[in-house]
Write a structure and sequence with these properties.
The protein is of the alpha+beta class. It folds into two domains: 1-39, no CATH class; 41-112, Winged helix-like DNA-binding domain superfamily/Winged helix DNA-binding domain (Arc Repressor Mutant, subunit A, Orthogonal Bundle). The protein is built from seven helices and five strands; from the N terminus they run H-E-E-E-H-E-E-H-H-H-H-H. A hairpin with a 2-residue loop joins strand 1 (9-14) and strand 2 (17-21). Helix 3 packs across helix 5. It is elongated, with a radius of gyration of 20 Å. The N and C termini lie far apart (54 Å).
Length: 142
Amino acid sequence: MDKLKSQPEWVIYNSTSLRAKSTSNEGVTKMANYAAAKKIKYPYIVRRKGVRRGVPVIEGTGIQVMDIAVRYHLLGNPSDEILAAYPDLTLSQIYDALSYYYDHKEEMDKEWKNSLKRVDEIKKGHKSILEKKLGKVKDLYR
């Protein structure tokens, strides 16, 4: 009976994840990736070493999954606005990209943060032409 109590209780967290309720006093919540357990396939998403440095892209395009996720989450664009921005895509491709992003969110967010760090490092080493002419420019995003 004690073994059963020590096992976590699984509940649906969202459409792609299960959450384990911790039965200990630590209050630590464990996540299990539902997509990995189910081996979900993404019909429109590919990841190839020779295409866009191996990041996931929508097949037949150079559009990265992260491009769609950024437009949706950071810019607040609904799917129809994303479709207007990328008229060669279909809604199925957009939703597949978002599904892939949610199922691999931790990994993709880490890659995104690393790419922002690389951009900052490049910026430090190279002044823009405008900055050379006008002097230091105030960074409005920080």
